[in-house]
């Protein structure tokens, strides 16, 4: 039992709702709206999925998922908007 890692069965999503593996975006999702990105970030942060599992399930690069995580940490869900990413990056680079 000592060597087994804790695996959450449910985490709190970005909008305060419970997330389970069944309620996450479908495997193979290709259209990424802000809510779906935030759900995957919350699932990884809460231990529902590992980073590797999420990347495999959604065919994402590790760098892409880490970028989503950093965007949520710095700017919340609005930071995940594709049209805002460049604006936030420009502001971050000036600081």
Query: Would you tell me the overall average pLDDT?
Result: 86
Low-confidence residue ranges: none
Q: How would you classify the helix and strand content by structural class?
A: mainly alpha
Distance between termini? 47 Å
Strand content: under 5%
Main pleated-sheet profile: 2 strands, antiparallel
Order of strands, main sheet, comes to 1-2
Number of domain units: 1
CATH architecture grouping: Orthogonal Bundle
Helix % is 40-55%
CATH topology: Arc Repressor Mutant, subunit A
Order of helices and strands: EEHHHH
CATH homologous superfamily name? Winged helix-like DNA-binding domain superfamily/Winged helix DNA-binding domain
Cα Rg: 14 Å
What is the number of E strands?
Answer: 2
The gross shape turns out to be globular
Number of helices: 4
Quickly name the level 1 CATH class. Mainly Alpha
